[in-house]
Amino acid sequence: MRKLSLFIATSLDGYIAKPNDDLSFLNIVEKEGEDYGYKEFTDTVDTIILGRKTYDYVLKEIGDSHYDNGERDVYVITRTPKQKVGRTTFYTENLTDLVKQLKSQKGQNIYCDGGAEIINELLKSDLIDEFIISVIPILVGNGTRLFKDGRPEQELKFVEAKTYDTGLAQLHYKRILKK
Description:
The chain has 179 residues and is of the alpha/beta class.
């Protein structure tokens, strides 16, 4: 069965965005030639799931080929129906059903890139298998929390931690399967 992995960055105080979906704090760890394992990670996935706000931001800041490079299926979770573009599907149905269906199919792993609503829904359904969380050395104080309240407790198994000279610390955990 395919696994679903969260690969995301957060401030030290647990925010994935400042107010108004401002992600500028991520720039403090930008370093030429350093991708913090992103390419190595994305080489193991053939499907990406993300929220519309995250998609819109990346589309504006980086471009549409960041996700849809012609080699991966991309599912943008949205409330607004929209025509498919390339391999990008704008998905308006039940997220849990989609992930269960994708996990049961053959293929490489599945990458969740947020946002917080998507992550929270997947946590409620216990569908995230792996957590790779890059902690940015900043306290932003306010914004969109990575993990929202109202989800069940989940115990995780530590895999590894990496540190970088930019101050970024990357934590890797796996879900402990319930017996």
